[in-house]
Amino acid sequence: MTEVAGEVSDGILLHGLSSERFVREVTLPALERGLARAGRKRSDVELTFPALIATGDTAQELAESEKKLRQHFAFYASTPAYSAVLELHGWGGLQRDLYELTRDGR
Fold first, then answer.
1. CA 20 – CA 27 distance, rounded (Å)
2. What CA–CA distances, in Å, run from 45 to 2, 10, 22, 33, 92?
3. Which pTM does this prediction carry?
């Protein structure tokens, strides 16, 4: 999908579960392959990376925000489509474990 984006798009919205390493080692090389196929330059495509952060005015609000953020990450990390990020970092088994927890409603 990223290669096709390199061929035809003017921008890519990266996923918040992506790590800097995944972007550097997987996403950008795929983008470059697509750009090369289409005879385009890297400056033809804008990358947007959402920052997922926890905030709060009090310690309790921050703790609640952090909990929600952990749940958000766990949900996406449980999805097979995002397992490549975990695998790159040596955490491939985590996706299966999180999927089981999600399936069980935990």
1. 10
2. 11, 5, 18, 13, 30
3. 0.80
What does pLDDT average to over the chain? Answer: 92
Q: Read off φ and ψ for residue 31, nearest 5 degrees.
A: -60, -45
Which residue type, as a one-letter code, is found at position 38? Answer: A
Quote the CA–CA distance of 100 and 29 in Å, as a whole number: 32
For residue 31, name the pLDDT band (cuts at 50, 70, 90). very high
Q: Could you give the 3-state DSSP secondary structure of residue 75?
A: helix
**What ranges in 1-106 are assigned the alpha helix state H?**
2-8, 20-22, 28-38, 59-77, 83-88, 92-103
* Rounded Cα distance, 32 and 47, in Å: 13
Residue carrying the six token digits 């009090």: 58
